[in-house]
Amino acid sequence: MKLIKMYILIFALINLIAIQSWAGENRKLAQTGMKFLSAGTDAHAAGLSNALVARDFGAASLFYNPAGMARMDGFLDVSFSKMTFIADFNYISAALAFSPQGGAWGVFGITMLSVDYGDFYGTIRAENEQGFLDIGTFTPAASSFGLGYAKYLTNKFSVGGQIKIAHLDLTGGLNNFENDQQGKVKSYKQSVLAYDFGILYRTGFKSLSFGMNVRNFSEEIHFIEENFPLPLQFETGLSMDLVDLTSFDPAVHSLLLSVDATHPRDYPEQIDFGLEYGFYKMFMLRAGYTTPTDEQGLSLGLGLNTETAGYNVGINYSYTTFGIFDDIHRFTFQFGM
How many Å is the Cα radius of gyration of the chain? Predict the structure, then answer.
């Protein structure tokens, strides 16, 4: 019990120090790189406005709080997601988790995230009448690959972490995109190691859970003459099945409420609210809301889960309004055994 309290205290101190250090008037906003790392692609999560820090979530927990993977049911869990983000950016993500020896050795996971930004027209400066030359089209892209691990330390307390390598290519294979004054080709490609780690604590009161998470902790990346940090986030959250407070049969109904507080490096703090109603753990209706935001609005989602011959199959969809931008649709397929 003393070890659990120490872990929670350490995470709380990390959050407090981060909040205090970024709270000054000179805090920089909207100046991080590799923002694709903070985009939520999972349809189940997005339907709850990504309020998942204090939830068990199988393999996809590695994108939100790695400690949520520790309580995975079965030996294998796989999820695959597709999202078309604003400006027609296409995201594809996948997560796989496996639990050897019934979780006695913990749960191991693998993640993949890929982003296609579409085609862009390339130009370079030139001493001609137009002042530039067309050099064709290029396709920027980004990706990350991660390895994660989670384990229960007690029946109430779990920890988890992930190490991932993130890669960004702004020129999309276009050669000689631009030269510096010495004639050397400038590099618009960067890779960096990043780390996620979190805890999940079940309080013992009904199904009330508490979680904390740090995402995208890394050194700064360097492009030409500028350094940029990654989109570091500190998150805390609470989750509970409200049916526990009623006389309804929990085998038939569930009503999971999740509330997360997010402290990002590059924009003001936000609160995420998520509510999920489940019927026989087969049919799910979800709603989520994040505040404050400029454009992102209400999120809605639905899911269908079925179990056949020992295999679990789930299909999830979410819809998020985004103000002056196009609305966002996400699809996720999940498989477990």
Answer: 21
